[in-house]
Amino acid sequence: MAIAAIELGHRLADELPELALDWKATPVPAPAIVVANSPLASELGMDPEWLLSDEGAAVLAGNEVPESARPVAMAYAGHQFGNYSPRLGDGRALLLGELVGPDGSIRDLHLKGTGRTPYARGGDGRAMLSSMLREFVHCEAMHALGIPTTRALAVVTTGEAVQRSRVEPGAVLARVAASHLRVGTVEYARWLDDGEHLAALVEHAIARHCPDAADAERPALALLAHTVEVQADLIAQWMNVGFIHGVMNTDNTTLSGETIDFGPCAYMDRFDPKTVFSSIDHAGRYAYGNQPAIAQWNLTRMAEALLPVLDDDRDTAVALATEVLEGFVLRYQASWAAGMAAKLGLSSVTADSHGDLFDGLLTLLAAARADYTSTFRILAASLRGQDAPLRASFPDHVVELDDWLAAWHAALGDADLSTAADAMDAVNPVYVPRNHLVEAALDAAAVDGDLTVFQTLLEHVTHPFEERPGSEAMAAPAPDDFAEDYITFCGT
Ligand code: AMP
Ligand code: MG
User: Fold this and answer.
1) List 90, 233, 251, 281, catalytic entry
2) Does the annotation count 402 as an active-site position?
3) Which ligand has the minimum distance to the alpha carbon of residue 112?
4) Is there a contact between 107 and 178 (Cβ–Cβ < 8 Å)?
5) Cα(235)–Cα(358) distance, rounded to whole angstroms?
6) Which residue of 132, 161, 414, 454 could cross-link 441, Cys pair, CB 3.0 to 4.6 Å?
7) Distance between CA atoms of residues 92 and 277, nearest Å
8) 123 lines ligand 1 (CB under 6 A)
9) Domain definitions of the chain by residue range
10) Of the candidates 457, 466, 465, which has an alpha carbon nearest to the alpha carbon of residue 434?
11) pLDDT tens digits, residue range 362-393?
């Protein structure tokens, strides 16, 4: 079958052949679309009808390859939980190609769960429906929150069963990203051990993500600086919404600054910076409160890998890289503080002008084990004179709460309180994909074949700021017995 419905470029495969291995998906018996993202398809200049067609399902499951495409498995390395693996790569995924949108932007179309590749190691190359639906709902919720992320285009079931802790329908996730270049890609190019691959990768990444860097005195340093900035901003936004990625390995850290690979991730319910959600993260390396430091650690691995193309003199290269890496903390703090200011209805902020106010709130939240997400909506309501929910959230910390409220009102100054409350509601979500809701939706879909729970959840979290009467349960934290026992397993 000749498929010309979508046009796909293959610049990565052409320009970086050592990083892109030509490969084909293992065909599956019965591809069927279970969730499709029509608005995203339109944004990409793709026909939403095609997405829902048999041909669309066949292409997104990897069974059929569009004429223009040259699918590849990408090679990358990675520091996983601190340990270096020189050769990871797409073990069960393919970059189908690059889409050029109506606005000229280039985005990768990538399929996850398309069978074993030479990078599969012990894996079966497949993905289970629940994991691909989890990634779908998290991608789209994160996007709706205004945070950079890969996007989910569709989930296709394969007609095969996949065995993990339970037997489930197999599935493929079609996702879209600014690119799939990772810190681990840079580490891999360095491991190939000749400056040529590194230089070619730098040139490709710059063209893709920060074209102005091509004119810099040291383009590779400018690429590093760009990645430091976009990652600092990204992690600040995660922290602002209480998101825990769970597996911040260098192969899950993008050069684009987009969130990628939602596995054992979570939105915190009760505030505790030590919160960990991954069953394999025994040491708490990727706990909520560690995320900024881990991002900087990952960027340091990128800088090390880039040293040969930063300067011929190693000491000079190290000095240049160090200076750029040191910029992470200031950028992160400013970005985080701006986010917190907006969450509290304060119109402007410098990094240290409200530091005590922000820290005071987090201390109070931690002491009261208050729900992170809903607290900000409850605070906005208090500005409209609705005090009861706030009082109910901090029953045992009345004095501390009153002290903090006095400081907050002082910071608000003579701002109009109802305007401030509206501004807060525009940035503080009511609905985030809390794990107890996500798990219920995935169980219904993968065990009972019922997608309605998933669709309802998706509808709420993709309109996170619109409070819906009757949906109170969607906004509430998990019951204690769920939160205390819950960990997400990495068996994806
Ligand atoms: P992830 O946890 O999805 O970021 O994947 C980490 C690495 O393991 C990547 O190299 C994946 O391609 C690979 N991988 C994960 N699951 C599988 C699987 N079922 N089969 C083959 N490779 C896999
Ligand atoms: Mg990954």
Assistant:
1) 251
2) no
3) 1
4) yes
5) 17
6) 454
7) 24
8) yes
9) 3-180, 184-341
10) 457
11) 999 999 999 999 999 999 999 999 999 999 99
